[in-house]
Amino acid sequence: MDQAGLETFEQFVNGAERSIRGDKIRIMFNMGVPMLVEAHLQRGSALDHSNLLVFQDSTPQSDAIFGGRIRVSTGLVDAIMNDPLDPYGTVYADVAANLVGDLDSSWRLFVPFGWILLHEFVHGMHQHSEAERRAKKIIAPNLESQATERDADLVAVAMVYRHLQRLSWHFRLNIEDDCLRSIIYLYLHRLLAHIPTEQSGSHPPAAVRLFHLFAKLVTLAVVPGELPDVGVERQETKDRSARMHSLVRMPCWDVRGWSHENIEHDFPSPIIAQWEAMKDDVGDLSAQLIHDIKSARES
Ligand SMILES: [Zn+2]
User: Fold this and answer.
1) In angstroms, what is the span from residue 119 Cα to ligand 1's centroid?
2) Mean pLDDT for each 10-residue chunk of the chain (299 residues)?
3) Model pTM?
4) Which of 3, 16, 28, 217 could be stapled to 181 by a disulfide with Cβ–Cβ 3.0 to 4.6 Å?
5) Which residues surround ligand 1, an ion (CB under 5 A)?
6) d(CA 156, CA 177)
C-alpha cells in the first residue's frame, strides 16, 4: 500500500479548510462515523479511529483491509459532495425536498458516507474473504464475491435505516417511514451512479445492487428486531412497495416486469442462489468472531 497521502479521518477532517467544502467534509465525517461506532457497540467491539483512513486518489473507491482497517479515497469524498454527474438533479432535488426538506443538505452527505463505512464494516464482521474461500462455486466466477457484496450492501442499508429511524424518533423529526426509506434509497442511487463500474465483476452491476437495496428497504420491518417480510406476504409490505415506488419516481434498474408481488421471486438471481449456499458459513464465521472479541475483552 502506498503510504503517501494517507491520513486518518481525524487528520483529514482537521485539515479541511474553512470553506463550504470544509463544512461539507465535517458534516460527512462527524455525522457518518457515529454509525460505525454504533455498529461496533452492537457487536461488542470498540472502534479504533486510527483504523479509518483517507487516501489521495481521484477514483471514488473504498476498501476494507485486514485488522479492521477501512480506507476511502478523496475521489469518493468528492463524489458524495459534488455530485457532478447526477443526471436526475432536478427531479432529485424536488423529491428530496418533498421527503425530508432542509434535512437533505446534511443527510445527502453523511448517509451515503455512513453506508459505505458500514458496508466495509460488514465485510469484516461477516468474515467475507474467508467465506468466499470456503464457498462451493455454483455457476460463474465472481459469483461468491458478488454474493458477499450483496450481503454487505443489505446489512449496511438496514443499519442506516435503523440509525435514521432512531435519529428521527429522538429529535421528533416527524418523517414518515416511507419517506425515510425512500430518501435512503435515493442517496444510494446517487452514490452508485458515481462509482465507476469496475471491470473485474467482483461487484454486481449497479442496477442489480440498486434493485436489491430497494427490495431490502421495502421489506424491512418497522419494529427493530422483527424479521423482514422477504416474501412480501404482508399487506403493509405490498402497500409500502407501491408507495415507495411512487415516492422515488426515478428509473433505477434494468429489470422488466417488476412488481411488488414478485420482488424476490421474479428476480431469480444466481447471486441469491450463491448466497443461500454460503450464508450458513457466514453465520458460523461471524458468531466465532463475536465469541473471540468477547473472550479477548474478558481475558
Ligand atoms: Zn464491498
Assistant:
1) 6
2) 77 95 96 96 92 94 86 94 62 82 93 97 92 73 87 97 95 92 90 72 80 92 93 91 82 42 52 87 92 86
3) 0.90
4) 217
5) 149, 152
6) 18
